[in-house]
Amino acid sequence: MDFPLLKTFKLDPHSINFLIRKCNQYFKECPTIPAENKFYISDTGQFTHNLVDWDDKEYKQFVKDILLDNIAGLLNLSPEKVDLYFQHIFDYKEGGYVKPHNHAHVEDFVVIIYLNTCDKGKTTFYFNKEQFHDTPRSNQTKVEISPIKGNGVCFSSLLVHEAELTSESKKIFVVGVRINL
After folding, report:
1. Rounded to whole angstroms, how far apart are CA atoms 6 and 125?
2. What's the whole-number average pLDDT of the chain?
3. pTM for the whole thing?
4. β-sheet bridge partners, residue 7
């Protein structure tokens, strides 16, 4: 097995433009969920319902033909072993952030794709931090990823991560991945 703890990548411009177009379409045509300030995100943003349930044929074809293969490749697995369990688009808007958390209770890996470039709003990953607990090593080993359009990161759901406060709209596409071994 060769599972990554954290791997960065670039998504091709055609796929990025497609996701941006679908993001704009969804936010115009479908109800969204307002961000909350209890745990994950500030109260300034919005996000989509799980796009797995979105009845958009073009989007479903993209997931089947392009997204699944890309994510399976990042994980060195055949597409049959990869389940794209959650798919969301977040728009943090000005003042948005995410508190430290992980996804271990829901999925095995997470993929974040940045849909626009922002000066602020880095995602910070902590290699030695436990969720809800600080230890002497909590901040010793961390990696910061800047939100740059077309860049992405695939990481283990065990990694605690957070997003710094953004002073502009920051849009990301997030996929929760479950592995079927």
Report:
1. 9
2. 90
3. 0.92
4. 154
